[in-house]
Amino acid sequence: MSLRAAALLLADGRFPAGGHAHSGGVEAAVARGRVGDLDDLVAFLRGRLATAGLVDAALAATTCHRAGGAGVLPWGELVAEADARQPSPALRASARVQGRALLRVGRRAWPGPILDELACAGPDGTPHSVVLGACAAAAGLRPGDAAAIAAHQAVAGPASAAVRLLGFDPLAVAAALADLADDVDRVAADAARTAGGSAADLPCGSALLLELGAEDHAAWEVRLFAS
Amino acid sequence: MRAGALRAGAAVVARLGPDGVTRLEVLRSSPPLGLRQAAGSLWMVGTAAGPLPGDRVTLRIDVGAGAAVTVRSTAATVALGRSGSARSELLVEAAVGAHGQLRWLPEPTVATAGCHHRGLARVSLAAGARLVWRDELVLGRHGEGPGRLTSRIDVESDGSAVLRQELRLGPGAPGWEGPAVTGGAGAVGMVVVFDPGHPPTTATCLGPECATLPLAAGGVLISAVAPGASELRRRLDAGMVAGEVAGGVEGGPVRHSPELSDHGGEPARR
Question: What is the DSSP string of chain A?
Fold first, then answer.
């Protein structure tokens, strides 16, 4: 599988989709004393990757697969399946904020019917994972690419947030992410395998403390990250 | 398959009688899962140890239109095994007809060291049907870590997804003890309440380890982690009160519903 420039662009933290404003739950975990050192961060990332990361990667891959095919897309079904996997209202809202930001830049970057239809279909906003899969399809990428980008972002975003929150050595965090690379690949491959199947059967792993922490975090008056 | 591993199927069919009382038309069970009717509830009774490695138990619950069933258990389910042993499984498939009601309120599942257990629940609700579903997982007995435990629930209402959630805990589940999943908690649990007649609730945090989470498709999930089983129950109960859905367990908003009759429906054993 060769690397595609469009995939690198979508995965890049500097792509103007607003990802830097979200900590992926790290800020709440730091405040509660659950993440204090690098070992805690790695355990956090492992759990996040295996749960929310796999779910997002599978949704992105499935959306990409369907958007790349012919016919009208059942956006409503994909959004409903994404929402059924996220009990936290704060995290559903955050996924929509990030989805909206990604859709905005995605429509400029890869204009065409896929993202236009998605924009019309989701007036209340569409979760980031579904938008990511649609952007990947619009950019001519494959479901496996969409899954890999989602899995990468599931750990890369929170890791960079942790550097800002706790002043970790960025080199040490980069090394930790490199150690996780095989796990990220495995999750992406698992997610890509689900892409052709029924949306109801997609993974639905729960990151309990992320869900509980997000509601807590959303109520704070002062915070560095939006989620 | 382990020599002596059990394959068991249990079934409940409940229908609303013309007198407004729910009767059990079918009540069938075999070891290790017994079903008994008492005090307005259906009780799951362990009639053999376990689940032990390789045991496969399927429970089908069919609640007819307007009927009401409450399922409880007399004791915790203790999943046993030794590291490397075959997986045990409990599959519950429940269908609730229009304006029917199912309350699933068993005692916790205890994942002992070395166990390899999977709990699966598939709940299908027709229009207007109500559900209260509690699932509590205790991660090991006193002083031990848990074996491998997976618990997945799928709830659909009128053909649409309401909740799909899976917990993978214990050895082999990456990061399960870490600060994104259980954070070293000794027990985790949830109650999902779906009542189309109930006004929407708002999200409430009861400290950092318990919250009521309104679901996108209606209904509410009370989710909690705790050091142990009794504190977990306290937190879930507090969450039910905060979410104003406690009546779903104790009778409030559903009091007008017919209770299970202690007299109707002779248990039909096969």
Answer: ----HHHHHHH-TTSSSSGGG--TTHHHHHHTTS--SHHHHHHHHHHHIIIIIHHHHHHHHHHHHHHHSSS---HHHHHHHHHHT---HHHHHHHHHHHHHHHHHHHHHS-SHHHHHHHHH-TT---HHHHHHHHHHHTT--HHHHHHHHHHHHHHHHHHHHHHHH---HHHHHHHHHHTHHHHHHHHHHHHHTTTS-GGGS--B--HHHHHHHHHHHT-SS-SS--
Q: Which residues of A touch B178 (CB under 8 A)?
A: 40, 43-44, 46-47
Q: Which helix (H) or strand (E) holds B137?
A: strand B130-139
pLDDT tens digits for range B74-105: 999 999 988 888 999 999 999 999 999 999 99
Distance from CA of A135 to the nearest CA of B (A): 24
Give how far A136 is from chain B: nearest CA, Å. Answer: 25
- For residue B240, the surrounding DSSP H or E stretch is helix B229-242
**C-beta atoms of B213 and A210 within 8 A:** no
Distances (CA, A) of B250 to B64, B70, B150, B247: 22, 11, 28, 5
Q: Rg for chain A (alpha carbons), in Å?
A: 16
Identify any residues that bridge with B194 across adjacent strands, giving them in sequence order: B131
Measured between alpha carbons, how far is A62 from A85 in angstroms, rounded to an integer? 15
Measure A90 CA to nearest chain B CA, in Å: 9
CB A216 within 8 A of CB A209: no
Domains of chain A by start residue, with CATH: 3-218 (1.10.4190.10)
ipTM (interface pTM) = 0.95
Is this prediction's pTM over 0.90? yes
> Nearest CA to CA, how far is B36 from chain A (Å)?
33
Residues of B in contact with A203 (CB under 8 A): 166
Token digits for B179? 């600060």
* A209–B216 C-beta distance less than 8 A: no
Q: Tokens in use for B12?
A: 């409940």
Tell me which chain A residues have a C-beta less than 8 angstroms from the C-beta of B160: 80
A103-160 pLDDT, tens digit each: 999 999 999 999 999 999 877 899 999 999 999 999 999 999 999 999 999 999 999 9
Q: If you measure CA to CA, which chain A residue comes closest to B170?
A: A47
A7-25 average pLDDT score: 92
Could you say which of B161, B173, B214 has the minimum Cβ distance to residue A84?
Answer: B161
Q: Under an 8 A CB cutoff, do A219 and B154 touch?
A: no
- Measure the CA–CA gap between B20 and A41, rounded to whole angstroms: 57
